[in-house]
Amino acid sequence: ISEVQLLTNKPVLYVCNVDENSIKNGNEWIGKIEEMAKNEGAEVVVLAAQIEADINELETFEEREIFLDELGLTEPGVNRLIRKAYDLLKLQTYFTAGVKEVRAWTIGQGWTAPQAAGVIHTDFEKGFIRAEVIKYNDYVTYGSEVKVKEAGKLSVEGKEYIVQDGDIMHFRFNV
Questions:
Q1: Are residues 70 and 143 in the same domain?
Q2: Domain identity same for 9 and 56
Q3: N or C terminus: which one in the chain shows less Cβ crowding within 10 Å?
């Protein structure tokens, strides 16, 4: 029946758009939606669209941080929404980095390195040889690809490697 892709068989995410006061303290409707979602096996994200619009108009990261801090929030609601949607849909992200650009790629959880390479181009998957992988936390800790390599934290993975969320990958292939 999963091949039919019925809408009623899809995961559900309720997004509650509330006022500024309710984002901090909640309200009766949020509780009702959370109870309903719990009974359905669905998820809930609460955000305030007006606050999100205000955050979007701020120009610098520092201004956004100050604004969020004044509201008693740790992050924008859109961040929670994206994370929850990815979790619900069983998606994750890996990165490719080159001289010209750094790019994020969305893949399914549990995908192998060749499948992930195929998202970039089918030839990458067909001719996959190996993937050079840097863990995101290692990159943050060491600060550059060169320093990660010097620390021996770059791994070379084959066709069976299961890509982890946040991996930074360089693919080697031959077509």
A1: no
A2: yes
A3: N
